[in-house]
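User: Fatty acid amide hydrolase-like isoform X1, Nicotiana sylvestris:
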Amino acid sequence: MGEKRVLLPASEVDMTAVKYTPQRIQGPHLTGFWLKLFVMLAEAPIIGSIIMILLKNKNRKTEMLKNTVIPEDPMFKPEFPPQESEPAVVCLEEDGKPEERVELALQCLPDYNPGCIQIADSSAPFRYWKIRDYAYAYRSKLTTPSQVAEHFISAIEEFNNKNPLAPLLISYDPGEVRSQAAASTQRFKEGSELSILDGIFMAVKDDIDCCPHPSKGGTTWFHEVHEVKKDAVCVSRLRSCGAVLVGKTNMHELGLGTTGNNANFGTTRNPHAPDRYTGGSSSGSAAIVASGLCSAALGTDGGGSIRIPSSLCGVVGLKTTYGRTDMKGLLYRGGTVAIVGSITATVEDAILVYAAILGSSPAERVSLKPALPCLPNLTSCESWYAVGSLRLGKYTEWFNDVFSTEISDKCEDILNQLSEKHGCETIEVVIPELPEMRTAHIVSVGSEALSELNPDFEDGKSARSTYDTRLNLALFRTYTASDYVAAQCLRRRLMYYHMEIFKKVDIIVTPTTGMTAPIISPTALKVGETNLSVSGNLMRFVLAGNLLGFPAISVPVGYDKQGLPIGMQLIGRPWCEASILRLAAAIEETCAGPKKKPVQFYDILKGNQL
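Assistant: Predicted structure for Fatty acid amide hydrolase-like isoform X1:
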C-alpha cells in the first residue's frame, strides 16, 4: 500500500513553490517476437494484471489515482468560463451555409498575388501551392480539376506500388475521384463554382465517415460492424463547398498510437525522410498534405493526433476548442477529449477549411454555450496591431524539456522574432501538476475509447487488432471507475491552473513535440511497435488541448540539422481560434524562414514530381 497524499485545493497552491519534474515515461521498447510475447503475457488473466500494476507503479499512476485525496469535484467534460472578445475579427454564423462562411473567410485574407503560379523557374524557393493558387488556375483556365485528378491518380498509383507498402490512402476509388473532379470542372466551365474550395483535393482520415468509402479506423474489421450510410457532418460541409474528397487516409489503428505505425495496411512514411515516422494517429492525412497531393485533409485529435504528425511532417495542424465542430459520423463520437480538425500546407488554408467545417452539435450548444466563431481579419492594419498586443505565456523549464535543444532553440528564436518584428511580450508562467495531466488524460481517453469499442471486443474483434493496440487495451482495462472519477477531479484542478494563467496571457507557447520524427525500426513494420519513451516525447506538450479542450495549432518553424521539420504549438483560450490563427499567420509570414522541399513531393497542379 502506498502512502496517502492529500492535495491542497488548487486555489491555495503556492505557484512560486512549484518545481518542474522532467517527464519520462517508463516502459519497454518492443517490436517483433518480443512484442508478441509481451502482449500474450499482458492479456493473460493473472500475470497480465501483475505486469500492468508494475507498469503503472513505475509511472506513479497508482500514487496519483488511488493514494491521493483530490479536493476538487470531478469535471466530466471541459467547462469554460466566459471569455473576453478578440480584437480585429470577423464573426461567423454557425447556422449559415458552409460556403457562405468560406466566402467570409476568403475576405479575411490578404490580397492574392497570382504571379508565382506562372513562374517556371526551378531555382525559385520551394513553396506549397495554396487553395487560392488552385482556384486561380481553374478560373484562369490554366488547368482543370479533371486534369489535376489525373496527376493525383498517377501519383497515388506510384505510392501504392512502393515496397514495402507505405500507403497514404487505405480506401480509394479513382473513378470516384474522376467523377467529383468532372463535376467541378463543369461548374467552372459554367461559372457556377460553389466556393473557393470547389475542385480542391482533400482527404479524410479513416475514422471519419465519407461515402462511399468504408470506415475501418485503420483496422481490418471495423467496417464489418459499422456501416457508412452518410457523410460525417464535417465531410458533408466540405462536400457542399465543392471539395474533391479523394479517399480515406491511413492512420494508427483506432487512433491509439502516436507514431502512425500500422501493420495492417503498411506504415505511411514521412515525406521528408522516408525511413522515419510521420507521427500519429493522423499519419496519412499529414503525409498526403506534406507530399503536395492534397491541399487539406481532415484528422482527429484526442491526444495530439493532428498536431504531432503536422509538426513531424512540416505542415499546419489545427485543433479547435472542444465542441466547436460537430463530431457526428466519427468513430469516437461520445468522448470528452477528441475533436475533428484540419491539416493543411499553410495557415490561410487552415482558416478556409476551419470556416467550412465549424459548427457545434445541437446538444453541445446547450451544454457548452460556445462563443460565436471568429476569424482573424488579416486584411486590416488593426490585425497587425492585434498581433503585437498578444501576451505569450512560456513555462521555460517545460519549454526546454526536449530530446534535442535544436527544437527549443528554434522555437525560442521565433519568440525573439515576434518580439522584434511585432512587439509581442513573452511572460514567464508556471503550470503545476503536468505529470498529473498526463495521467488524467490517459485514463480519460483510454476509458472512453474502451467504452465505445467494448461491444465489438466482447464479440472477439480485439484479437484481430494489432499488437500495440492490444497492449494499450490491456492497460485501459485495468483502470477502474474510481480511477476515472479521480482523473476528472484532476481535470478540474488543471482547468483552474490554466484559466488563472489565461488571465495573464492570451496564448501559451511550446514546441509541438519533444523530438523530431523518430526512425522506423524495420522489425516494427510487420508486427508493430511499442515505445513509451517516444510516445512521451511526442505527447509532452499537447495534452492540455485535449484534456482541457483548448484550441491549439502547430505551425512549422524550421528544421533540425538532419533536415527534419520542427513545429511550434500555440495554445489559446477557449473559443479563441482567431487569436492562435492570427499569431500562426504572423509566424508563417515573417518568422519561420524558407520551406524545405520534401523528399517525396508531387506537384499535381502542374503535373510533375519535383
